[in-house]
Amino acid sequence: MPELPEVETVVNSLQKIPKKTIKSFHTSWHKICYNNKILNLDKSINNKKIYSIYRKGKNIIFDINDNYLVFQLRMTGYLYHSTQLPSNMKYVRCYFILNDDSYLIFEDIRKFGGFYIYKDINHLNNRIGIDPFEKQFTYKWLQENILKRNRQIKGLLLDQNFICGLGNIYIDEILWFSRIHPLRLSSTLSNKEIKQLFLNIIKILKKSIDFHGTTFMNFKFDNMKTGNYKSELEAYGREGKKCQRCLNIISKIKVSGRGTHLCKACQSF
DNA sequence: GGGATTGTTTAAAC
DNA sequence: CGTTTAAACAATCC
Cα separation of A61 and A59, whole Å? Predict the structure, then answer.
């Protein structure tokens, strides 16, 4: 499922698009835009130049000058640039024809994905939390903000209003590497544990970006390419297998309604 | 056929 | 108020 490294990979794969212009927008899914009626979309989108494409958290932001298209892949979204439409159009939920007759295509098996259209990007920025690669995200910031909350650490890290970009897979990995039990209350973490958490958030996200993300089920980018981080996973998806640190068996429990993988022997409660 | 899968929003419960 | 839980969305896989 696309989290920060996967979204970063997708954004990197779209960098030939900026400076192109949108000729037309096509959709077969009436809920494709979360905050606008499709009927009103054409005049906001057509003939608009795409100035830049960038990321915040899991959001893919298209700056078309007087509007911002903010795509969310959610669980199975697949956004790519191609010279032609796919032969199987079943999961194509919308596409844009650009001025050089190339296509920006959005496919989504589950139809959870889509986009917001904002006049002011602060509508997004005010709603979501800090991105781990922003300058302001420091050990000190994390320490202060973790300690003033009293929530289960996994639930807190899943909260996009707290930190944006982390999801189920990388949180399990980050907590395994940091030796922290996912149910620990945030206010009880030691400074040493928060330091580990901070370092591992940065380290694991960077490493996964280098691997072009994790393809566990559906993740694809740039015309059917897949990510390679799956082979590096230590916790997620490894229930019943040996913890590669202490040789105990990796367990699977439910935390914040999510399947959660951990080693009960070396992640202290 | 039932349950699990997960990102996000919203509502309800505690 | 802060936090947790659950439902809803939708499709597929086992």
Answer: 6
